[in-house]
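User: Could you check the structure of this?
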Amino acid sequence: MIAHNISWNHYCLAVPANTPFTVNVTNQDVGIQHNFSIYDSFFEKKNYFKSPRITGPASETLNVSGLPPGHYYFQCDVHGPAMSGAFIVK
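Assistant: Sure, the predicted structure tokens are below.
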């Protein structure tokens, strides 16, 4: 995932169910913070993963535990829905 101009380069991600995975995040925005979080939905009632904030320019590889099959939601918590997308686990 690349964060640039306060947006992601992907708006839909998919991973296999019940399998740990990594997310590579590159923040290209100089002096701006971003993070990567996974929620149950746009309403953010349940958080499944939340990375620390990354101040750009910088890159990090995030290790995420496996999730059960379903449709989830990802976003940068600093910028909310402006940096969000669908997260599919199948």
